[in-house]
Write a structure and sequence with these properties.
single chain; alpha/beta; D-Maltodextrin-Binding Protein, domain 2; 3 domains; 6-stranded mixed sheet; elongated
Length: 340
């Protein structure tokens, strides 16, 4: 690039957009920088004005002309495969707002996603409700809609033990090990942790099943999937497991030994949509309208079904939203204390 050019670009835009220093003389070109002489084409001026408007104003989306959907997962390849058609559909519907394409950004933690949101590298996040709450608190993003998944609009978590165990209450788990799923899972981590914390229990992360928890606390290990958690309980490798109620009901049908529930959490929305605070109001309103009506057309319904069996989007019921937001202070304290 010529020395008298100042680059104006974004990581996800192919090619090199550049403008002359001080906006003096010459044309803006897509692959070069400043063309000597006076700009002879009206198109050059139009491009320059467009760049100034988009880049100097922030553009209203994470990357100019690109809508970025975020996800928190340890399987980025799988997430992109499932999510890309959905964000492509949404981007196409937003073409009148200058959106040309959609992309998927995957973080491996709540903190990582919150950072992407703060840096305007992610525009939308669709995730479990308590996970989304944590991102909102750290990044300033806001709730938008609820997602129905596989025909379900809400869910809750349970903590389960072997039927023949001595454990009847959460308080009985002091000095024992509990299997949780992963730190960004609402049903497999956050709701069970909140239940135990509200019972006055102290939780301590363990390095593995072989580590003995402190006698005055509940130790926890990550199983990363419900089937593994259940297997550990069945084999007496852990005292209990925290997981989604629906997962427990399904896995209990083929359990090696009878299991029972010692704790059931409040009901929360299945998944929610949140948006970055950098998005302008008009764009957010249009996204809301597109999502609310997507299930009404064959194209939209097919796209939703391919997006991890999404059924529809609707408004978040006030009662369920209150259930989620009341968790905020306690959950933040727990995570900052090392649970994350």
């Amino acid at each position: 690039m010529a020395k008298d050019c100042a680059r104006v670009s974004r990581d996800r835009i192919r090619g090199c957009w550049a403008v002359p220093k001080g906006l003096r003389g010459g044309c803006v070109t897509r692959t070069g920088c400043q063309r000597p002489g006076t700009c002879r084409s009206v198109n050059c001026l139009a491009i320059l004005v467009f760049l100034l408007v988009v880049f100097n104003s922030g553009g209203g989306v994470a990357s100019a002309r690109v809508l970025v959907l975020g996800s928190i997962s340890l399987d980025p390849v799988g997430v992109v495969r499932v999510s890309q058609p959905f964000v492509d559909y949404l981007a196409e519907k937003l073409s009148s707002y200058g959106i040309k394409r959609g992309e998927v950004a995957v973080a491996d933690s709540v903190a990582g996603m919150a950072s992407l949101m703060r840096e305007k590298k992610v525009d939308l996040l669709i995730d479990s409700s308590v996970t989304a709450l944590l991102v909102n608190e750290r990044a300033g993003s806001k709730f938008l809609l609820r997602r129905w998944k596989d025909g379900r609009d809400a869910y809750r978590s349970v903590v389960v033990v072997r039927q023949d165990s001595r454990f009847n209450f959460l308080s009985d788990l002091v000095g024992e090990t509990v299997a949780l799923e992963e730190s960004f899972s609402t049903s497999g981590f956050m709701l069970p942790v909140l239940g135990m914390a509200s019972s006055g229990l102290r939780l301590v992360p363990l390095d593995g099943l072989a580590q003995v928890p402190p006698p005055d606390a509940v130790g926890y290990v990550m199983g990363y999937d419900s089937e593994t958690q259940m297997t550990w309980v069945e084999r007496n490798q852990v005292a209990a497991a925290g997981l989604a109620e629906n997962d427990f009901k399904q896995l209990a049908k083929s359990a090696l030994v009878p299991l029972r529930v010692v704790y059931t959490s409040p009901i929360v929305p299945y998944d929610v949509v949140v948006y970055g605070k950098h998005l302008d109001h008009g764009l957010v309103s249009r996204i809301r309208a597109i999502l609310l009506s997507a299930h009404d057309t064959r194209e939209g319904a097919n796209t939703l079904d391919g997006f991890d069996q999404t059924t529809m989007f609707d408004e978040i019921p006030a009662e369920l939203l209150r259930n989620v937001t009341t968790f905020g202070p306690e959950l933040t304290r727990l995570l900052e204390g090392g649970a994350e």
